[in-house]
């Protein structure tokens, strides 16, 4: 496996994508949707600023957080389409065997197709940078914090592209791999939340409490233990983004008179706190315990990256030649 071989396959994939001509319109539609959403978000925040505690210097916090969540949601919709037919689509058109008989190895073909799909996804993400810069200029968001959020979204796009390509190598039909890719994205986002909620009743434990300053006898009640099943929520892309993005800088809170981060204004920090709260005993936790709780995103992002790496291994394994066994209805060329 050599970088030149990967580059050859990636360049060929780019030429095929550009030849269709539809990507130009898709990019224009992407920019139009992001621009419309950012403009409406900024207008809505400006309208509510007078009746809320959002200061002008902090307007970028909710603006950047809302933009990143929206961009991640759109990216999870676009990324499967970039790689879900990269292998079985070529096999259906009879062009995959032409590449396989060249000196290119299976890993070079697999990684070249992945690099092309991931780079295309990064182009979509790069088109959102001007709007992210707009949020940074509104105030309240540091440049390092913005770069960290964008980097996490970029990694998650790569993971989804790798998973979609793995399904493209496993399944014979392009329409089937595309549908399964979207089902996998649904499982990673909505499915992890549903599984976590359904698992909570299984962790219920009895707690005994004694009322202080009264003659009442101790009483027993049941409390779920989310710290036992927090790992079910860890692979969620939105949980990873919210927890991995650094908290906003601490400023003086006029209510408490202490230096505190402006978490209430930031949707990413709110998601991060909610995720970290699952690692703390709910009966003995307060705000300081949640803030100091261990991070969840290294486990979730690490699991997703390993899953994507496994999908790439499946892709390379299915591209090895000679082919000893084919699915029914699949042709070589």
Strand content: under 5%
Number of strands: 4
Query: Could you give a short account of the major beta sheet?
Result: 2 strands, antiparallel
For the record, the count of structural domains works out to 1
Q: What coarse outline follows from CA principal-axis ratios?
A: globular
**Helical region count?**
13
Helix content: 55-70%
- Structural class designation: mainly alpha
On the 0 to 100 scale, the average pLDDT is 85
Order of helices and strands: HHHHHHHHHEEHEEHHH
Strand ordering within the main sheet: 1-2
Structure summary:
With 333 residues, the protein is mainly alpha-helical.
What does this structure look like?
The protein has 333 residues and is mostly helical. It has one domain (3-318). The protein is 63% helix and 5% strand. The chain has 13 helices and four strands. The protein has helices at 3-20, 22-49, 60-83, 88-93, 96-100, 106-126, 129-137, 143-170, 174-199, 237-244, 267-277, 287-291, 297-318, and strands at 205-209, 219-223, 250-252, 259-261. The strands form two sheets. The chain has a two-stranded antiparallel ribbon. Strand 3 (250-252) and strand 4 form a beta hairpin. The longest helix has 28 residues, at 22-49. It is globular, with a radius of gyration of 24 Å. The two termini are 24 Å apart. The mean pLDDT is 85.
Write the layout of secondary structure elements.
Blueprint lengths: L2 H18 L1 H28 L10 H24 L4 H6 L2 H5 L5 H21 L2 H9 L5 H28 L3 H26 L5 E5 L9 E5 L13 H8 L5 E3 L6 E3 L5 H11 L9 H5 L5 H22 L15
Antiparallel strand pairs: 1-2, 3-4
Helix pairs in contact: 1-6, 2-3, 3-6, 3-7, 3-8, 3-9, 6-8, 6-13, 8-9, 8-10, 8-13, 10-11, 10-13
């Amino acid at each position: 496996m050599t970088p030149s071989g990967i580059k050859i396959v990636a360049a060929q994939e780019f030429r095929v994508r550009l030849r269709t001509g539809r990507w130009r319109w898709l990019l224009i539609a992407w920019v139009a949707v992001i621009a419309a959403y950012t403009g409406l978000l900024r207008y809505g925040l400006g309208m509510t600023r007078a009746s809320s505690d959002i200061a002008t210097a902090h307007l970028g916090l909710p603006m950047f957080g809302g933009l990143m969540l929206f961009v991640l949601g759109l990216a999870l919709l676009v990324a499967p389409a970039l790689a879900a037919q990269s292998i079985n689509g070529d096999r259906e058109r009879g062009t995959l065997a032409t590449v396989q008989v060249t000196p290119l190895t299976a890993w070079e073909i697999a990684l070249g197709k992945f690099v092309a799909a991931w780079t295309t996804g990064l182009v979509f993400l790069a088109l959102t940078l001007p709007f992210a810069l707009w949020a940074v200029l509104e105030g309240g968001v540091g440049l390092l914090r913005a770069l960290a959020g964008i980097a996490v979204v970029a990694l998650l796009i790569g993971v989804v592209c790798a998973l979609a390509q793995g399904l493209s190598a496993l399944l014979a039909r392009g329409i089937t791999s595309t549908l399964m890719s979207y089902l996998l994205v649904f499982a990673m986002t909505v499915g992890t939340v549903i599984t976590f909620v359904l698992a909570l009743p299984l962790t219920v434990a009895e707690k005994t409490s004694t009322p202080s300053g009264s003659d009442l006898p101790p009483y027993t009640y049941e409390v779920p233990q989310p710290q036992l099943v927090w790992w079910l929520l860890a692979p969620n892309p939105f949980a990873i983004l919210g927890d991995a993005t650094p908290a906003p800088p601490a400023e003086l809170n006029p209510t408490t008179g202490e230096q505190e981060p402006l978490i209430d204004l930031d949707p990413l920090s709110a998601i991060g706190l909610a995720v970290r709260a699952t690692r703390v005993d709910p009966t003995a936790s307060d705000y300081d315990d949640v803030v100091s709780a261990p991070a969840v995103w290294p486990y979730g992002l690490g699991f997703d990256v390993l899953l994507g790496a496994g999908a790439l291994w499946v892709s390379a394994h299915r591209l090895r030649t000679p082919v000893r066994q084919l699915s029914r209805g699949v042709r070589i060329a």
